[in-house]
Amino acid sequence: MLNSFVFVLLFFIFVKFATLTCVRCPTGSVAHDEYQCVLICEAWYCDRLVDCLACGPGTIAGTDPQNCKTCDPGTYSNSNNTECLACSAGQETNINKTGCSDCEIGYYNPQPSQMCEKCNIGTYAPNPGSTNCLKCPMGSFQNMSGESFCYPCGVGKYNPSSNSWNPNDCLICPIKYYCPNDMTAQPIICPKNHYCDSDGLSTPKKCPVFRVSNEGESKCQFSIAFIAITASFCVIVIGIIILVVRLKIQNKKEKQKLLRPEKLPENETLDFSELRKVVPMTQPNQIVYSGL
């Protein structure tokens, strides 16, 4: 009985293999073993060696049929997910990994197939899509990375260096100079007929009337014209004073001369006989009006 069953089983196996023929695998597939074909997927990957599934954004079909290859940073997958394409300088892979986006302000990318990086301290990137960072100009500084601007030193200060990151690089404008702008590179010498008498000035001070100064002065002096006018006025005033004094002295002398009798010459006596004819003699103790 057992021998009959084994014989029948062997017969059927013989018939199966005797009638089996090989069939060419269809296009896009290869033989996995003697009995099964496996799909060769382009832009797809094989799930359990049976079905082809699409690769996701930022990936492409690689040599491994069961896994997709991730595109490198700075690259993205094309619409068919068959190739990774490079982003241009000033760009990086977008968030969906399906294209490129410009670098944000404060960031830069100098060459293709790279990701954007922060600008270093002392530099800035004011526009999106920058391929390089700009140095902070003189009169400013930037002490943080990834910025789109530089801090101005402010009026009354200056900074002669570019690419500055230290706030202490901003110096106070010295005496005899002024710093008018908030981003002054060099202090400006105080102009003629002005004076700069303190540190940190943003505007020069104008000399008062009748005073002048040369460039780079901290105070004003009286002008030569003013000195000449003043001296002339003083001379005139002094001359007038001297003249008035002399006139007063002369007038006083003349009055004294009128009040004082003339001195008679020697050996000459005064004859009052004629005087009595004109002026009657008074009695003793009689008051006479002299007219003075």
From TrEMBL:
Keyword Membrane (UniProt): yes
Superkingdom classification of source: Eukaryota
Pfam families in the cross-refs: Ephrin_rec_like
InterPro entries, sorted: Growth_fac_rcpt_cys_sf, Tyr-kin_ephrin_A/B_rcpt-like
Residues in the signal sequence: 1-20
Gene3D superfamilies attached to this UniProt entry: Tumor Necrosis Factor Receptor, subunit A, domain 2
Tyrosine-protein kinase ephrin type A/B receptor-like domain: residues covered: 122-170
Keyword annotations: Membrane, Signal, Transmembrane, Transmembrane helix
Residue ranges of the TM segments: 222-245
PANTHER family for this protein: INSULIN-LIKE GROWTH FACTOR BINDING PROTEIN,N-TERMINAL, SUSHI, VON WILLEBRAND FACTOR TYPE A, EGF AND PENTRAXIN DOMAIN-CONTAINING PROTEIN 1-LIKE
Record's protein name: Thimet oligopeptidase
